[in-house]
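Hi everyone,

Forwarding the result from last night's run.
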Amino acid sequence: MTLRPILIHPDPRLKKICTPVAAVSEEMRALADDMLETMYDAPGIGLAAPQLGINKRLIVMDCVKEDDATPEPVVMFNPAVTWVSDETNVYEEGCLSIPEMYGEVTRPAEVRVSWLDIDGQAQEEQFDGLWATCVQHEIDHLEGKLFIDYLGAMKRQMITRKMQKLKREMARP
């Protein structure tokens, strides 16, 4: 497994719609392993392939945050939301591609998602709470959408300027 660099917004690769994974191959499984390792190391609770500059419909997540709890990693190839609840939740979201920045986002409180698992088997599950927010946030990445796209223009511009400054600082020797 390999830690991979995470793209920082603004980056045009984060705004592209991703292509479906044609087959769950050894290469795709290795990518999923790298993504989980990168996500845990960051640390984060979700990561999408485009955040690593890979234009594929692949996300990983694990919303178990307690130190003494058993991790529950989930790998989703070609995830799709098949149902959303009328009820909504508001979470203060962050993103590994927008470090140290947060904003309140309203999303459906519950969602049902279908996907292919690490073995290429079809899965479908209903998520609520933090898991529902996380899976929707990560699937948004596959559509070229970031959590800041849900925020007002002023807040979005402020965050984007801060990220541009961060990238300039990171580029300095």
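The chain has a mean pLDDT of 96.

Cheers,
N.
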